[in-house]
Amino acid sequence: MSARVLPYVLILPVTLFLCLFFLYPFILVSQQAFSNGSELTLDNFREVTSHWKFPISMKNTLLLAAVVVPIQVALALLMATMVSKMGKGRDLVLYIWTIPLGISDLAAGIIWLAIFDQSGFLNSMMHGLGVIDKPLNLLSYQHPGVVFLAIALAEIWRATAIMLVILVAGIGLIPKEYYEAAEVFGASPWKRFLRITLPLLRPSLQTALVLRVILAFEIFAVVAALGGTLFPVLMGETYAYQFDLLNSRAAAAMALIILGISIGFTLIILRVLRVPKGASI
Amino acid sequence: MAEIQIKNVAKIFGAYQALHDINLTIADQEFMVLLGASGCGKSTLLRIIAGLETATTGEVWIGGRRIDHLSPKDRGIAMVFQNYAVFPHLTVFENIGFGLRMQKLPNDEVTRRVEKTATLMHIEQLLKRYSGELSGGQRQRVAVARALAMEPDVILMDEPLSNLDALLRMEMRAELKGVLADSKTTAIYVTHDQVEAMSMADRISVMHQGKIIQAAAPIEVYRNPSAEFVASFIGNPPMNFLPARPAGAGRWTVAGQTFDGPQADRAALQFAIRPEDMQPAEQGLTALAKVVEPLGAHLLVTCEVEGKLFRVILDSDMKVRPGETLTLAPQPDRIRWFDPETTLAVA
Ligand SMILES: Nc1ncnc2c1ncn2[C@@H]1O[C@H](COP(=O)(O)OP(=O)(O)OP(=O)(O)O)[C@@H](O)[C@H]1O
Ligand SMILES: [Mg+2]
User: Which residue has the least CA distance to atom 17 on ligand 1?
Assistant: First the structure.
């Protein structure tokens, strides 16, 4: 077989797979989102964006991402740096830190519900310590801050490890000689982190951030478990359109809006963290 | 003034002793080469001086100041790494200026020094490039420029030329020597290439299994090796050895011939001679030619003398065939003697 044809033959199975399971459903969803049954229209988008809950759920989703993702980046960087400095016990620590990865997001939400619930650990502890005299319903409309905090904590606990794993692998790729050179030429540990680790980690940071930000816009189960309807998010609204209001065209439009936001942020991340030509390790 | 003193330095990694009681003084502006086979502890010693490794025991002094407890940046040193360690995410300019930026020098001073050293290393036209856009030789120049830009008291180099091809290595060798002599820094240069060592060094420290066997000027190391190891390590091909028996009154019998030797009261000595220090003659050692290699400038003949491997370098006009018997007369003033028990030279 000629060398010109062979590459295409080799990617054919993947292409078919992607077309069948990604492109085709995507086209179906788009069709639904842009039609009212007979003709092409933007009505579905108008409908979902003019709903009073849309701005709130948009704001909540973005706010959550804006709070959770930076904290996760910082934590994952810190943890990855610690892990890569460890000799013995490194693998054990890494395994323990990545346990939350194996827990589904709904289960994670329920674990944190067990902490913040009226009869949960937090209430019993505060009660036992005498801080409060009767258990409080923390996850209620009277405590929007606590609801937000609980969701953010659950998300950080649950999904930092995915970044950690990517960053640990990325740090492992940076040759030790760069750190030694930086040290000899006068860079303190903090400067070495800023001037060597961070810039050389750009490709891994890119991957980790894209993955995390997309997941952050898709947040659903944790919010459902902890906030219910108190804290509307885009994905929750999509679900409501599809299964409560049985309006699959509106749900499809919501799905495309979320996709659009994800693509937008992905492009920004790729652009901001790009590595100039000739400057990779 | 940056004289370096290494006092009783030893290094133990777990159960492995990489360095044994190293003592060495390197004069101000001297070019010292650490030469030895792979794994003998050259890099370890260099890294202890740099502060990238801590000595298990012993002290390091630079310019009359004890520095082994200081961090690398406070030691007045700069280093050129084996794989250059040119930062890939910084331009050549920022690489050369890295140390200066860390010292928080003003911008115009950084620019001045970067441009000066870049010109010195002939890379002034590459300042805007990234290391991925450079050849190995250019990267090497950047690494040297980065070290020189610091205007250090001491410059440490760990096999800086080992990744270059032979021709470039020869070119860089001469250039580096010139640049370092002009910069008036004290230099320690690690290599396992004896030609590099001989051609660049003011003094060579020959290392073996974590010890410095001999530290002396290149020609001294070559002519008067202090131990059998040095004699068999330096020179290509190395020195020939033959067992010698006392023949009384400072005379020694070697392969049936007697030679003047040391007045030593020993049952046996090793007779040693360099391959190029012999001439075919009427009288001398009887050698059976085994392999003849014409190398252009001369003829390398591998022989056997009393069953022992023996190499001789002859004039390229000589006609020698394998199986022939040669009679070789060693140049008397070039014969060296070693004690087979201590392996040290005997005068
Ligand atoms: N961090 C370390 N842990 C354990 N052993 C080490 C360590 N660093 C070096 N060694 C050992 O110490 C000895 C000397 O190593 P060193 O790197 O100084 O050798 P070298 O002379 O520079 O060799 P080469 O020419 O191959 O670079 C080697 O046997 C090596 O295995
Ligand atoms: Mg080495």
Answer: B43
pLDDT tens digits, A111-135:
888 888 877 788 888 888 877 777 7
Please tell me the distance from the alpha carbon of residue B298 to that of residue A48, in angstroms, as a whole number: 91
Q: Does B85 touch chain A (CB under 8 A)?
A: yes
- In chain B, the number of structural domains is 2
- Per 3-state DSSP, chain B is made up of helix, strand and coil in percentages (nearest 5) of 30, 40, 35
Measured distance CA(B60)–CA(B58) in Å, rounded: 7
Indicate whether B56 pLDDT > 90. yes
- Tell me how far apart the 2 most distant CA atoms of chain A are, in Å: 80
B166, B195, B227: which is the final residue of a domain?
B227
Cα–Cα distance, A95 to A89 (Å, whole number): 10
Q: pLDDT of A57-72, one tens digit each? A: 999 999 999 999 999 9
Encode pLDDT of B174-220 as tens digits.
Answer: 999 999 989 889 999 999 999 999 999 999 999 999 999 999 999 99
Q: Provide the domain limits for residue A259.
A: 53-272
Residues in chain B: 347
| Mean pLDDT across A10-19 | 93
Say if A280 falls within a structural domain: no
Range of the domain at B304: 240-338
In tens, the pLDDT along A167-195 reads 999 999 999 999 999 999 999 999 999 99
Residue B158 lies in a domain: yes
Q: CA-to-CA distance for B41 and B158, rounded, in angstroms? A: 12
Question: Do residues B135 and B29 share a domain?
Answer: yes
Report d(CA A29, CA A256) in Å as an integer.
8
| Model confidence pLDDT, tens digit, residues B250-300 | 899 999 899 998 988 888 999 999 999 999 998 889 999 999 999 888 999
Provide the pairing of β-strand B278-294 with B257-260.
Answer: unpaired
DSSP codes joined into one string, A64-95: HHHHHHHHHHHHHHHHHHHHHH--TTHHHHHH
The pTM (predicted TM-score) of the whole model is 0.85
Sign (positive/negative) of CA torsion A46, A50, A51, A54? Answer: positive
Tell me which of B9, B34, B43 to substitute to probe ligand 1's pocket, judged by most ligand atoms within 8 Å of the beta carbon. B43
- Position B1 pLDDT exceeds 70: no
Q: Is the ipTM, as predicted for this complex, more than 0.90? A: no
Given a contact cutoff of 8 angstroms between Cβ atoms, the answer to whether A183 and B73 are in contact is yes
Does A278 lie at the interface with B, CB-CB under 8 angstroms? yes
Q: Is B38 in the pocket of ligand 1 (CB under 6 A)?
A: yes
- Note whether B139 and B286 are same-domain residues: no
